[in-house]
Specification:
The protein has 96 residues and is α+β, with helices and mostly antiparallel strands. The chain is 32% helix and 10% strand.
Length: 96
Amino acid sequence: MESIYARGRDNARTPMQWSAEKNAGFSEREPWIRMNDNFDKINAEAEIDDPDSILHFYKKLIELRTTNKTLLKGSYELLEREHESVFAYKRELGGD
């Protein structure tokens, strides 16, 4: 069993933290795996209420990606092709 516990993915997972409610709002029943101790502070409901949250940051990125014509249709040029740890590119459309 020790090898299963060491290699199993459950050691790195916890139920989704929806709210600060019991069991993080994940289930009315006791989850099969322990809840993360921070669920009362870090959860989806708290992210919605915080304009500086990661949720709102990603919403802004998605909006930028879907409304910026240069990002959508611009030409693509890969920069630093040979660099081992940098992925850089340039998108250009009509001088932007």
